[in-house]
UniProtKB/TrEMBL annotation:
Bilayer-crossing regions: none
InterPro entries on file: ApaG-like, ApaG_domain, ApaG_sf, Uncharacterised_ApaG
Signal peptide residue numbers: none
Record SUPFAM superfamilies: ApaG-like
Cross-referenced PROSITE patterns: APAG (PS51087)
Domain (ApaG): residue spans on this chain: 8-132
Entry-linked Gene3D superfamilies: ApaG domain (2.60.40.1470)
Protein name: Protein ApaG
Amino acid sequence: MKQLFQHAATTLGVTVRVAVNFLPEQSRVEAGKWFWVYHIRIENDSDEQIKLISRHWRITDGHGVINFVDGEGVVGEQPVLVPGQSHDYVSGCPLGTPQGSMEGHYTMRRADGSLFEVAIPFFALAVPATAG
């Protein structure tokens, strides 16, 4: 099944696309736990090789409580992307409310060693009305 990316942001020739889905089978609504999975594609349309060094997430729940998540790489990887190449990964986010949002940035390193930030687009985490 082809994934439909609902959100995208481009910084200096690097595009980050996001598709997000609520997973009722991984959620425990009766215990106040909701879970989403997100698929990210990073596309290097710049003219230089880049390496993903770290991630910075701002996760906001339905009460406005903000959590920051920082770490090396993504899902244990620090992919190197040559011009024209893309990298896909899937991860998840649990929340204590049925809605929230995520946004952030990746820190990338160019071949010359210089660093720059690539925006991760804002995306909502929301339980579909049909999910009860």
